[in-house]
Task: structure prediction
Amino acid sequence: MKGMINVISVGQAGNRIGQKFELFGVPTCYINSDSVDMRGLAVDATNMFLLDGRGTGGSTVQGARILKGHRAELIDFLGKHLNPDVINMVVFGLGGGTGGSIGPAILEYLIAHKYKTACLTVLPQKMLGILAGENAMKTLKQLKEYDLSLFMLADNEHLVNKIGINTNWWERVNEHIVGEVASVFNIISPEKISQTGIGSIDRGELMRIMQYGKGLTDVRTIYLNTTDLRGTEAEISAKLYTSSLIEGYNYKDTLAYLVSIDTPQRGNYTQISKHIFDTTKKVAGSAISRLGMFTDPNLSDVVRVTMANAGLKLPKVLQSRINNLKRDGERFLKKKGKEESISIISLEENVIEENFKL
Result:
């Protein structure tokens, strides 16, 4: 990823994900409104900008007020950390007040000033409650209007269920998110040797597919062992399209996709590779495609398949969460008898999903 993306991390969730990108050597800066969130991150002062320091209390309205008072300073800070020659990726969580207010504002600034702009954002867990859920859906509705070069979405609810709650589970969730993004860029690793017939995938082709169309981009890496490789077409297809960052994508909506197959140095994997390519074509149909096949000296007895699908619509499964949010909000208001205490967003059925149609 180094030399291809530049990360602007915002808020508690964004900062922690940003740290994982920095471990990969990706230039990363940190923006927050709460000094407590920054404890333990060991961030160089020149890479950190702290607005106010007292936090937003989970309120995007308060976040907007804080931003208004520090906008000039923030723009000056960004000017020292943006890179016009790579994709500038703004990373934040959708459930918080800082990420939900300052993250979109930074995206607007980057787009207005013609930077190549990407967004990686994360849906909160259901257990965080009505306020986080409302922030998330309201901000998500805002983001779909932006002309982003690249838009990636992860879901903590899905990832925690996938990874499990145990020691350092948040660390593992963040590592998984960044690891999946990094795996796509690893396609162009110089250690790998392209195979005759299919050929390699170069940097330009990778970035073209990742940024194709207006919509969401999904990335995932799958390892197939010898038992997996003997499976049926349906079994292999199920593994290739197992949810990674978020569940529920309809891959038939794909506008452009990329498939890279890495095989060990020894063994004949031509037939299984053709089988994988044929399977992905059946799923994505007439979408623009780029296929690659490599030998990786670091692999032994497994085949690694890295995939990216671009131009996707928002998963319909999230509509159920919206409906549940509305229901829970109505129950909350009825129980407390304080209709003025919280404003649940009014979202008609399928409004977000429909707005992602191209």
